[in-house]
């Protein structure tokens, strides 16, 4: 067994022993978030941006707007694409190079939540034949302290909420001049809640040690009206009753998370 495997096993046994006693190593309740705060307009040359701090996790989201060709199957709709980068400075476990599976999954989960919530009505951003607006959300993990999904979703949603649309004349963008904000409904801005199962215990908002010890995770993304996306991770499982309870918890926690949207 490698040194890493031994350390991982010891860490998991230590965390599990605490959870079995009804405690978390950092003193939180099982369904308690770490401190969350957000700043907007943190990137001057982006159309919208936000920095979210969730415990020691820090993520910046930046939005760029471009005139692009539409997808062939949707010629009269704008496009939205979410990308992510796990910067090596954020964690010793992140390496430079092309996106790995973890990076791709992170971007896709955030992207799916925004798309399924229909935060932006892309049909309103058709310009001309072969021209639509493209919205590109870039997520940069500056510090990894666990639970990328919830922080990333908040950062992306805030970047969209605070976005300024560049003025368009004769089918071209005029940088530095703006025509207003995005046409979106704050009730549709998604929030995600990440639940981690370690042994028989389920906790909200895992820190980095808890995340490394998990058997399974469930990321539940909701807006005011319904569940917009779910992502199951890990080799463990959740009972049907557990899933239903966690969905209820996700809507409950949304009430506090949504306050960050103003």
Explained architecture:
The protein has 262 residues and is α+β, with helices and mostly antiparallel strands. The protein has a single domain (3-261), classed as 2-Layer Sandwich (Ribosomal Protein S5, domain 2), CATH 3.30.230.70. 27% of the residues lie in helices and 35% in strands. The chain is built from 5 helices and 12 strands. The chain has helices at 3-20, 101-117, 148-161, 208-212, 240-257, and strands spanning 36-40, 48-54, 57-68, 79-86, 126-128, 131-143, 164-169, 172-181, 191-198, 201-204, 216-222, 227-234. The strands form 3 sheets. Strands 1, 2, 3, 4, 5 and 6 form a 6-stranded mixed sheet that branches. The model has no long low-confidence stretch (mean pLDDT 93).
Helix and strand layout, with pairings?
Elements: H1 3-20, E1 36-40, E2 48-54, E3 57-68, E4 79-86, H2 101-117, E5 126-128, E6 131-143, H3 148-161, E7 164-169, E8 172-181, E9 191-198, E10 201-204, H4 208-212, E11 216-222, E12 227-234, H5 240-257
Parallel strand pairs: 4-6
Antiparallel strand pairs: 1-2, 2-3, 3-6, 5-6, 7-8, 9-10, 9-11, 11-12
Helix pairs in contact: 2-3
